[in-house]
Amino acid sequence: ARLDAGRVQFQFRATNVVGLLDQLEDFVAPQVDAEGRSITIRPPTAEVTVWADEDKVRQILVNLVSNAMKHPPSSATIEVFVEQVDTRSAGGVRICVRDNGPGIPGDKLESIFQPFVQIGRTLNHPVEGLGLGLAIARDLARGMEGDLTVKSDLGHGAIFVLELRRP
């Protein structure tokens, strides 16, 4: 509601992506260990900065990793990596979160960003949460002049792409 009302404040600054990914590993390690999952975080080999609110980017990435751990199989792996969209200009940077879970049906790819939508929730497989995380994450990304998108092949996992602009 605060996002929709324009009451969320963003503190923009040049933010080091390597530092964000180092912090992400610290934030999610307890949950990764508790769930028995594996995560690979591949920071960029060179310094990469984005023009963003560091706390909001961290919130988005923690949400994406947490979501990847909610769905079977328990042996699912998670990978976080960075792609630079354009190194010659201001361009953008993509921070990607990929899992090898069950994937998302093609007709649901956009609806998962709507509030209260949860894919795969059944009586014998309840999913934690209210279905607000991805909606909030996309709104935060767009509030930083970026975007959050998803690609998925049913049965072959999903890749969430957070695109942010460079300073």
Give the overall silhouette.
globular
Q: What series of H and E elements makes up the topology?
A: EHEEHEEHEE
Report helical residue fraction: 25-40%
Distance between the termini: 29 Å
Strand content: 25-35%
Question: What is the total tally of β strands?
Answer: 7
Q: What structural class is derived from the secondary structure elements? A: alpha+beta
Largest sheet properties: 5 strands, mixed
Helix count? 3
Mean pLDDT, to the nearest integer, reads 83
Strand order of the largest sheet: 2-4-5-7-6
Radius of gyration from the alpha-carbon trace, in angstroms:
16 Å
Low-pLDDT parts are 121-126
Describe this structure in words.
- This protein has helices spanning about 15-35, 55-70, 135-145, and strands at about 15, 40, 50, 75-85, 90-100, 145-150, 160-165.
- The chain is of the alpha+beta class.
- It contains three helices and seven strands; from the N terminus they run βαββαββαββ.
- A five-stranded mixed sheet has the order 2-4-5-7-6, covered by helices on one side. Strands 1-3 form a two-stranded antiparallel sheet.
- The relative contact order is 0.20.
- Helices cover about 30% and strands about 25% of the residues.
- The two termini are about 30 Å apart.
Give a summary of the structure in a few sentences:
The protein is α+β, with helices and mostly antiparallel strands and 167 residues long. It contains three helices and seven strands; from the N terminus they run E-H-E-E-H-E-E-H-E-E.
